[in-house]
User: What shape does this take?
Amino acid sequence: MINRVTILVMDSVGIGALPDAEKFGDLGANTLGNISKVMGGIKLPNLVQLGLGNIDGIEGVEGIPNPIGSFGRAMEISNGKDTTTGHWEIAGLYIEKPFKTYPNGFPKEIISKFEELTGRKALGNKPASGTEIIEELGQEHMKTGNPIVYTSADSVFQIAAHEEVIPLDELYKMCSIAREILKGEDQVARVIARPFIGELGNFTRTPNRRDYSLDPFEKTVLDFASDAGYDVMAVGKIEDIFNGKGITKEVHTKDNMDGVDKTIEYLKTNTKGIIFTNLVDFDAKFGHRRNPKGYKEALEEFDLRVPEILNNLKDRDMLIIIADHGNDPTYKGTDHTREYVPVLVYGKNVKGGVNLGTRETFADVAATIADILDLEKPKIGTSFKELII
Assistant: This one.
């Protein structure tokens, strides 16, 4: 009955602290609820129609009597709250050992090797906000030609460079070099190219970001689908997160609206399998920068596009809207927050109004897709196909 599933990840749109949030320093975090609270409400009528306000324990949006979608929330069981961990769990993996982080910057031996292999000295080498560190070190970078290296509470090695100082091809090569260095005991989840343009006081990051991830350590539902001859179409940074594994077609995007546009373009094709989309702006532009107003406006902008997405679903399509972690813009610090995520499910041949309850792992999505497409099952996750089909 269903032959194509679109997973749309609203990057970082959490809906309340998980029971173990205190272990991660995130007690009281609630991305959606706190945005609504501090902004005096939020208007998401189309997501509410799908059932967003009916999710157990949700705050900040009101439910309705007869939502057209089925709805629930999911817990993260993996040991982390980063992008890679969240997406890999959605696809059916359990990350027991967290990726390595560097709260005090990278050790001398890693930086020395990076400098030796790239032929350039590294500036920074500390945890920092991406926008703040280019303002702090951008002028020195412009003078010396040395790249800005920084990290965060996440498992990342980020390289910022002005596009007129270090061309994109060279920046990407530097990231590939760092990716080779940061394996084994020094392994990080992602190496990220962070190009920018402009002048001091007006530096702006460009859409030419690239993420250099790791191969997933086991097959995901994406591999099972592509091995079975299905199309697996990646929109946004999905290809980077999975290092291309299990993906048959990919397109990178410039922002959320471009991500919606590209998703709709794939929906219009006569394909079968999986469309996997990440809308990163919520996280990158507003969550990390602790900007609840911008986050609210981005959510409302996305909500306006939801009817267009629904109208482009074919009879045998199913849409799953989910998030990969939280990033409460009202919370302390600048990092992700350990939260429940919403799960909204819709399709012309999918039951509406079903409360899926609290799913014990994001991997229930992978298990459900495997069940629907008759694929090999992931090791974790419980299918909710029988509730909605």
Summary: The mean pLDDT is 96. Residues 292-311 form the longest helix (20 residues).
